[in-house]
Amino acid sequence: MAVSPEQEHPTKAFGWAARDSSGVLSPFKFSRRATGKNDVTFKVLYCGICHTDLSMLKNEWGISMYPLLPGHEIVGLVTEVGSNVEKFKVGDSVGVGYLVGSCQSCDSCGNNAENYCPEMIFTSGAKYHDGSTTYGGYSNIMVANEHFVVRIPDNLPLDGAAPLLCAGVTTYSPLRYFGLDKPGMHVGVVGVGGLGHVAVKFAKAMGVKVTVISTSPNKKKEAIENLGADSFLVSRDNGQMQAAMGTMDGIIDTVSAVHPLLPLLGLLKTNGKLVLLGVPAKPHELPVVPLISGRKIVAGSNVGGLKETQEMIDFAGKHNITANIELIPIDYVNTAMERLTKADVRYRFVIDIANTLKSSS
Predict the structure, then answer these.
(1) How far is 56 from 64, CA to CA, in rounded Å?
(2) What is the pLDDT of residues 180-236, one digit of tens each?
(3) DSSP type of residue 244
(4) How does pLDDT run across 27-77, given as a tens digit for each residue?
(5) Minimal CB count within 10 Å: which of 18, 32, 56, 312?
(6) Ramachandran class of 273: left when φ > 0, alpha when ψ lies in -120 to 50, beta otherwise
(7) DSSP 3-state of 167
């Protein structure tokens, strides 16, 4: 006989979850495990909303399990630590991102790339080592193994830091790994959304020249004056695209919709790199000739390992980088999901868990 979410573990918890693929969220009582010897328990203060949450809620990828309690941009204050925990103490500002577990024995885990572990455990909507369901950050408390917890720098506001645990490391990681972080380099960023706007901020802080590439001319002022990009290209303007041919060392492509890659490959210098971060509903068409003729690379990248996530958030602290957010109460979350479907947010919704969850539940 199946154990109810409320009875699965000893610590009572509550949040908002969806019961089916309608994706509609409502108050949900469940339970968290007791603080183990290697665990950190913290009170959730804020949780960002990622487009992945929306895809999982709607079961767009066919892997969702219900009830589903999303949220993997989770920040808060430590309330308890296990006896073996060395990195954290009660009162610390901490966060949990996209993953809460991995095998810890494969090559990826050994190379601080737990995000590529075949047995990676998602923060929500997955099965933990003990077989229990993982519930995310749209909830009052969080418990995680200390290896999968990061420390948030004291100078960063927690609401603006929350999205960095996914959007931040997802853009920081390819800039570092593919060597697009050298002062004087020229990098393009496709899309000015939840990922794109932090990609611009990180690249600029690394000393890179940044060109935003967008289908929307009306985003030029925002990209240059508010985000600090050096230039702006309208991807549908053939004249602008032709003038920029062969000028970029790399491109970070954050767009999830299917779009032509050929014009982007044309923007790259010889040996240039196009890194895809978005997950389109249908496969991209990949033209081979421009790859061969320019020894160019098309690559992908997915969030980051825990060492890199800590490095990213420390870099953000040093350079005062946060996401541009719209802070919302928990009972606005379904409206926020509808707006997210239309890309109607600048640029990340963050739920004010601490101040609104209790009154709504």
Answers:
(1) 6
(2) 999 999 999 999 999 999 999 999 999 999 999 999 999 999 999 999 999 999 999
(3) T
(4) 999 999 999 999 999 999 999 999 999 999 999 888 999 999 999 999 999
(5) 32
(6) beta
(7) helix
* Single-letter amino acid code for the residue at 3: V
Q: What is the 3-state secondary structure (H, E, C) of 24-65?
A: CEEEEEEEECCCCCCEEEEEEEEEECCHHHHHHHCCCCCCCC
Query: b/e string for 37-63 if b means 16 or more Cβ within 10 A?
Result: eebbbbebbbbbbbbbbbbbbebeeee
Task: Please provide the size of the chain in residues.
Answer: 361
Q: How far apart are CA 80 and CA 229, in angstroms?
A: 42
How far, in Å, CA of 313 to CA of 344, rounded?
A: 26
The string of DSSP letters for 59-126 reads TTTS---SSB-----EEEEEEEE-TT--S--TT-EEEE-SEEE--SSSHHHHTT-GGG-TT-EESSSS
Residue 191 CA from chain centroid, whole number: 15
Is the four-CA dihedral 22, 24, 25, 28 of positive or negative sign?
A: negative
Please name the helix (run of DSSP H) or strand (run of DSSP E) that holds residue 286, with its range, or none: none
Decide: pTM greater than 0.90.
yes
Q: Is the peptide bond before 347 cis (omega within 30 degrees of 0)?
A: yes
